[in-house]
Amino acid sequence: MDTSVVSAENIKIRIESRAATAGIIGLGYVGLPLAVAAAKAGYAVLGFDVDQSKVEALNAGNSYIEAVPEPSLREQVAVGRFEATADFARLASCDVVVICVPTPLTKQREPDLSFVEQTASAIARNRKPGALIILESTTWPWTTETVVKNILEADGTKSGRDFFLGFSPEREDPGNASFRTVTIPKIVSGDGADAQALVEAFYGNVVERIVPVSSPRVAEAVKITENIFRAVNIALVNELKIIYDAMDIDVWEVIDAAATKPFGFMPFYPGPGLGGHCIPIDPFYLTWKAREYNVPTRFIELAGEINVAMPRYVISRLEVALDKSFAKSLSASKVLILGLAYKKNVPDIRESPAFAIMDMLKARGTTFDYHDPHVPSIPRTREHEQYYGQRSVGLDAATISSYDAVVLVTDHDDVDYGLVAAKAKLVLDTRNALGKRGFSGETVVKA
User: Fold this and answer.
1) Catalytic residue status for 278
2) What is the dihedral of CA 416, 418, 421, 424, to 10 degrees?
3) Where is the UDP-glucose/GDP-mannose dehydrogenase C-terminal domain (predicted)?
């Protein structure tokens, strides 16, 4: 009898009956919501993370992710369906292992798969025979079928026989109240028919809708395509903003009017640059991989150049506005950064353009502070260690009026924009947050 079929059938029975134990590696914005969703679906879930402080917080029922309310987490901890651990030897008890670790870029803007590689090596040392292993981290096409598979097979075991391998890209959107982990359609794929069936069985029990595709490389390409689509369109409206500014045309008015067309147009809006864990990073994964095939990616790279240049454009607009309003240089000015998170209504600061703006202000000798209701203090990060511990200042009339300019980077809803408009000497609004609320005047400059 074909032992691979028996093994696949056995693990499928455990998955379908929810008798399987699921291990989720990486308990951040992707891993923790998935872990709680899997626990709610009836699985026993072990959450793995190298950060012991996260492990202790989660086991105490304390959530650090807004998408995971503490009552939901505490319920799963209390009934014994969720436990966090830093002991990767416990992977040996997991029937399903899902990898949700970061895939950043190097300083040379090349893919950094070190977290994925280290995780795959840990799984190879500790995995349960016949385990289903799924990568969720965004990466270039063929990563699952080459990099991850090669590491897992280095000991002589084989995918589809001794373990099963799949890819299912995360599609989390922090702060989006309309969609959550279980309601976002899930792209699923496997390395072979048995793996495909197991991946479908697992996610089919956790989320409302699965979308099977033919291979992991297709699923990897789906995720990168989604984010390139956004990156390119945002670059387009960012470039239009610069063009229309020169023509004394309000790009936000143009886009809002164009959006009334019921077909053939999808509105995207400009900003101070791209942020978050996906859109500023993922397109460069494809441009890097495309070089292996001698295929140019001019369109994608141009979009990246435009988006990366936007913080510098904001600084140039600020410099002109200060000189025009007060005949004051940037170096002699005091500036308040309004909003540190990369998008509104979340505490997520990953790749936030606010940091690029702060770096440029610091280089010019400008005195600056920040206010963000969602980021009371700046956590330690790999890229911006120099700002660790800096605290958000209050946003009262006296504080606002003490600055020469307020640079609005993130348009959080829970900000008193009327107070900002009334008390700020100058507002550089990169999101049209004041304009769409009806605040305008000589002290408000769109950028």
Assistant:
1) yes
2) -50
3) 336-436
Catalytic residue selected from 84, 278, 300, 415: 278
Q: Do 76 and 36 touch, CB atoms closer than 8 A? A: yes
What is residue 64's three-state secondary structure?
A: coil
pLDDT in tens, 180-212: 999 999 999 999 999 999 999 999 999 999 999
| Predicted TM-score (pTM) of this structure | 0.91
Residue 438 gets the label, from left (phi > 0), alpha (psi -120 to 50) or beta, of left
DSSP strand pairing (164-167 vs 132-135): parallel
pLDDT digits (tens, 9 = 90+) for 245-304: 999 999 999 999 999 999 999 999 999 998 876 777 888 899 999 999 999 999 999 999
The token pair that represents 244 in the structure block: 């229309």
302: number of Cβ within 10 Å: 13
Q: Under CATH, which number does the domain 228-446 receive?
A: 3.40.50.720
Host H or E run for residue 241: helix 216-246
3-214 CATH choice from 3.50.50.60, 3.40.190.10, 1.10.10.10, 3.40.50.720: 3.40.50.720
* Location of structure tokens 């510098």: 312
Q: In 3D, which of 164, 219, 118 has the Cα closest to residue 5?
A: 164
Q: Which residues contact 42 (CB under 8 A, 6 or more apart)?
A: 18, 81, 205
For 192, how many CA atoms within 13 A lie in the half-sphere containing its CB?
A: 16
- Helix ranges (H only) for 247-297 are 251-258, 282-292
Domain residue extents for the chain: 3-214, 228-446
Using DSSP, state whether 20 is helix, strand or coil: coil
